[in-house]
Here is the input.
Amino acid sequence: MKFSYSCEGKGETLVFIHSYLWDKNMWEPQIKFLKEYYQCISIDLPGHGQSSVLDDRENISLRDLAKELTKFIDELGVEKYIYIGLSVGGMLAPYMYEYHKEKIKKIVIMDSYVGIEPEEKKKMYFSMLDTIDLIKKVPENMAEKIAEMFFSPIVSEKRTKLYKTLYANLVNISAEKIDTIVKIGRIIFGRENAIEILKNIDIQVVFITGEYDIPRPFEEAREMANYVKDSKLFLVENAGHISNLENYDRVNEIFKERQYDYIWQESYIEYMKNQVINKI
Here is the structure.
């Protein structure tokens, strides 16, 4: 697999993995906020953004994808990092930890669920994927339905810029990417249960979920948090599934709040030391 990525800032490394049907640019508000203190690496998943598509014969699982991502992170020369994943990015977190236990210092799982997909939702998603696979595009009526699932009611009802941007991106997915998009969708919604892996994570895991997240309701985040020895749980008000964009002020605020500071404090303290040294 060939991954496209961006790297901004200097300091302790943060690795960002985006949601299904989005790309690395979705993290722009967080990277803009954090890059003064941290090296922010954001990676496009296969068939998303500028990353390559999967080979027709390439059958993978979330575990396989995590393995490829950890190999890529190794190639970048990253020694230690904090992992931040939203939606499928969060689903990859347990496997990322298994492969990079010695490298991952903290985990942030946003708007995600590592258990199996509820059967009713799974049937609906697979039906949509079958249609996309058959006609080799996302039809307009389906794009509207998908966009509505991603956001809070107010964004969907008002057809805001955020909604319109996602809708346009969906209906304009290139034909060469469709097979990979469908394949990634099937491994997401047909995923195995990784809940038990959470019990073995001995670093801090922070769970963040939008108040109006339709695909991944807050109750799922609460369930996952109960499996982790050292966990924190946050609700993002007035936001849906893409909470980091719909209410980026609140997400950024969570990142800097006092009760959350210890996740980032090592790099911040180091940064402040350097600032003092530079002034001497």
